[in-house]
Amino acid sequence: MVGLGVPGVVAVTVGSPAVSSDGMGKNNGDMSSVSPSSYEFTGIVRGRRSGTVEKVVERRQRRMIKNRESAARSRARKQCRHTLWNWKLKWLTQVNRIRFGRQRVRRGITMNTRTNQNSCRLMLIFICGNEMQEL
Fold it and tell me: Is pLDDT above 80 for 98?
């Protein structure tokens, strides 16, 4: 095949074979018997040039690296959110424990004031004996 200097155009020569039936070449390699008839093939030559292949590979590698970096950033953000949620959960648990403890104490004082007073009297009677009953 011989290029004609035009991109995408290749000349292909077609003619009689230069090899005889006995396997030996005619005229000892002389190609003068090949007919000069040729046709033009105007198509896209399949395959890529080595420069374009390298560019494609380089682009793919850059894209993979960017994707890995993005995934790493995403995992870091997720870990940060997870840590913050854990801290917030612990903090709110402590706040609620304190708040509900205070509420229980307040409820106990307001609802059981008489019971507390009576239990104090009973305790004093038990400790001091009959002396407290007279009071």
Answer: yes
